[in-house]
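Input record (Table S2, row 375):
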Amino acid sequence: MNQTLTALLLGGALLAGCQQKKNTPEQASQAAATDSAVAATDTAARVGKPVLLHTLPDQYNTPDGLALAPNGSLILSVPNLADNKYPAVLLEMTDDTIKPYLTNLPVQPDTKHAAPMDLAFGPDGNLYYAENQYENDKNFKSRLMRVRVQNGKPGAVETVVDNFALANAVVWKGNTIYVTDSQWDMPNDDKGSAILRFTLAELNKGPVHLKPKTMDPHVLTTFTTAVNETGVDNGADGLDYDSKGNFYTGSFGDGTFYKVTLKPDGSLAKKEAMTLKGKKIPCIDGLIIDRTTDKAYVCNSRENAIEIINLADGTVTTLAQNGDTDGQNGLLDQPAEVLLKGNRLYISDFDKPEKKFVNQKSDAPHTMSYIDVPK
Ligand SMILES: [Ca+2]
Ligand SMILES: [Ca+2]
Ligand SMILES: [Ca+2]
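Output record (calcium ion complex):
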């Protein structure tokens, strides 16, 4: 980061701090009142200080997945699930600019929509994205897609895996891509979800066709959602691994945080629900692990919060949280995905609420936020 930017940021933080101290008692009581069922729109952060990065037009209404590109920019998926009369796109952004990266994403033949969620560059230099067709069709129409990248430019897009129910997060580790399916139901479990994995060599042999509602050989492990008052049965969502190669995922529907340990041959050694201390997280969306500190940055979508889980001891601390908001000024508006680049945590404000979420409605502005995190 250059000196000028650092100075600007420090100045901004100081100014924001001064403004926060000027909150009137009326504002403070208003913030407290938003804990009740019907909330007035919040205008202040309660914890932390998220900063507005980009404001997006209505044609990019539901920002989601984030990937770090080889050139240092970020690729953002915009599935437009809140208003899909606009086609889904991928955008390319820096701290100063945001522009289209790929706008002709192939639609799924039955749903007639593209729906890119999380994405990541593979060891082959191509870009892979998971699709969430679940809201268009619950009958296993989601896919894993590959964008051929040549000389830094996106080219043809092809299906590499189909028959997911709700492909969601992706992460490459070596030559294997791990994918969560938040709705991988089984014949005896309609609250199912799973982590699946595929080698690059296998993807290069042609499309993989999953066998829905089975322990397909690509299923690493499965989970069952304990459905709560939100009524949401989506399970395994965000996914990443720590410095020792252990994987972690969280349940969107019930907030359980799972640690998944592999044997040297890549098969499952152990799956355990971690006991967390300090705060119960009711909902986990996207997450990223800082492998230099083994801390997980977790989107608590339901409570408009970003939580930090110390993987060494399970301690939870809240990095940022606010009440219901439209997202202006960078306040969290249902954060769904995070990406850490250096000390900067980039946040997608998905803004498409479920029942009992702090976020009450999908609204303009559509926003990206960031927080510079202490190491
Ligand atoms: Ca289900
Ligand atoms: Ca908004
Ligand atoms: Ca909102």
